[in-house]
Amino acid sequence: MAASILLNPMRIFSKFWQTRYLIGRLVMREVLLKYRGSYMGVGWSFLHPLLLLATYSLVFGKTYGKHWVQSNPDGASYPLFVFCGLIIFNLFSEVASIAPRYIGGYISYVKKIIFPTEILPVVLFLSACVHACINFLILSLAVLFSGNFFWTSLLTPLILIPFLLFLLGLGWFLAAFGVFVKDLSHLIPTLIQVTLFITPVFYPVNLVPAHFHWFYEINPISSTMENVRLVMLLGEYPAWNNLATSYVIGILTLFIGYRFFSNSKEEFADVL
Prior knowledge:
Helix 7 runs antiparallel to helix 8. The chain has 13 helices and no strands. The mean pLDDT is 83. It is mostly helical and 272 residues long. It starts with a helix and ends with a helix.
């Protein structure tokens, strides 16, 4: 059974088809609750990334912006370069930061034997994807109006698939692990801050010493950033070798995360 799931990860998703209505309702609830009571509501999904973009562009524009322009004079502007990286990183950050304490927020659900606990990380993952889709819409419109829209942008979903598989597997793993190790929810934010600066959100990879390039090639976050920038901002094909590696890592992470969660969920009610 384990080997068949590893060879065909779609077997995992087929288990959630029967509960698609429940998942959809929980995702809607998750998105709306995030902005309940605020005057702008879902509008913060648009405003928040734009504020981050303005801040980081001002802080890092003079330091790294000239390197991006010199390396890619015909590509999109540096703010769009940063925004593209932020979309990928914020998607990772939202899943990784919330997952360790996510199961604890649904104690009443977890203690119901008939409730499919494994859908909770899926709900978190999909709600984060909603925000990412809004940001990708903003990016696409900005690229279009800047006059740098390329047909290779159509390859973006192909690049995002392994990254999304990686995030879903990571969400399952961190959600289960966070139930047993409470300190994880305090450790993860620090690790996310470190990850922010060791991934090429603000700087091009060509500024990184050559002997560290292997790390950026196997890192699903950085390789996804670079490939999305290639197809959306530069009109080039993705780095196929890096994309193939991302698929392998994404499928393995999905399998490991799901197996770990499935083997641990029986103990959630006792620990919580």
